Amino acid sequence: MNIVILGPGAIGSLWACHLSRAGHSVSLWSRQHNNSIYLQQDHNPAVQFTCNSKEKLASADVLLVTVKAPIVEPTLEQIAPSLAQETILVLMHNGMGTAEAINTLLPNNPLVIGTTTHGAFRPKPNQVLHTGNGYTEFGGFNEGGKRCDFLQTVFEHALPKVTWHSNILSALWHKLAINCAINPLTAINQVKNGHLSSPNYQKTITSLTAEISQVLNAEGIDTSSESLLSKVNQVIEATSENYSSMHQDIVHQRPSEIDFITGYLLQRAKAHNISVPTNEQLFQHIKQIEQNHD
Ligand code: PAF
């Protein structure tokens, strides 16, 4: 297939290398690169990728969008005139709330959303390391996207394990719950994920998950505060050596994904008239830190 990766950061570069080794024609679209780039993943031979080719974009079967949530809409707005209506758009980022806007911007394109737990790190622009084996979940957002279940085989062949969901929103909400509980706390306190297992944080995490489970239930997702708390603690354990993405954004004074993580939860809580004061407090704290950035 002709696949273009929009925003080849760590996760985008990881998929670029795997999809290319699986035999697809992969090119990149990125502000950071010129016409082509060599990318090496772990100890595999480096691969040369074409970058920013309008021809490749116009003939893409799949556009895999791996930019962060806050820039999904502005970036797709810029390239929309070069995209064919048949190109399948696949969004893969932390947080929720972008698919609605993209479906309005490009209503005729099949739209698929995904989430991954693979760990990747890009120590330099030409290198990507696969730091943690995980799994990926996809599902259709609009009617066209729901007919793209064959993508499960395409992506599974490149980088297993991949699951296709008839209700991807449930998987995304569960990932959102984990991000709401871990990311702001690690960013505010400047700690690795593993620190959150200390008793100091457990009271706050228990309040967060109790609030989040109410919102999930109101959204029709079957869960309980106990099962969310246990899932969050499993992820804290499994990623104990990681610095969360929000921690890294805050340390590097980059805009974080807070509006698409806790911000999205707050919006949905408000729509259902549910009070979520602990999440609200963390949201305001991150906003305050961001305002103090240069
Ligand atoms: O955003 C992140 O960093 C990750 O989604 C997670 C699961 C919190 C692990 O660091």
From TrEMBL:
Residues 167-290 form the Ketopantoate reductase C-terminal domain. The keyword Secreted does not apply. Pathway: Cofactor biosynthesis; (R)-pantothenate biosynthesis; (R)-pantoate from 3-methyl-2-oxobutanoate: step 2/2. It comes from Vibrio zhanjiangensis. SUPFAM superfamilies: 6-phosphogluconate dehydrogenase C-terminal domain-like, NAD(P)-binding Rossmann-fold domains. It is an enzyme of class 1 (oxidoreductase). The lineage of its organism: Bacteria, Pseudomonadati, Pseudomonadota, Gammaproteobacteria, Vibrionales. Coiled coil: none annotated. It catalyses: (R)-pantoate + NADP(+) = 2-dehydropantoate + NADPH + H(+). Residues 3-142 form the Ketopantoate reductase N-terminal domain. Its EC number is 1.1.1.169. The keyword Cell wall biogenesis/degradation does not apply. Belongs to the ketopantoate reductase family. Keywords: NADP, Oxidoreductase, Pantothenate biosynthesis. This is 2-dehydropantoate 2-reductase. InterPro entries: 6-PGluconate_DH-like_C_sf (IPR008927), 6PGD_dom2 (IPR013328), ApbA (IPR003710), Ketopantoate_reductase (IPR050838), KPA_reductase (IPR013752), KPR_N (IPR013332), NAD(P)-bd_dom_sf (IPR036291). Catalyzes the NADPH-dependent reduction of ketopantoate into pantoic acid.
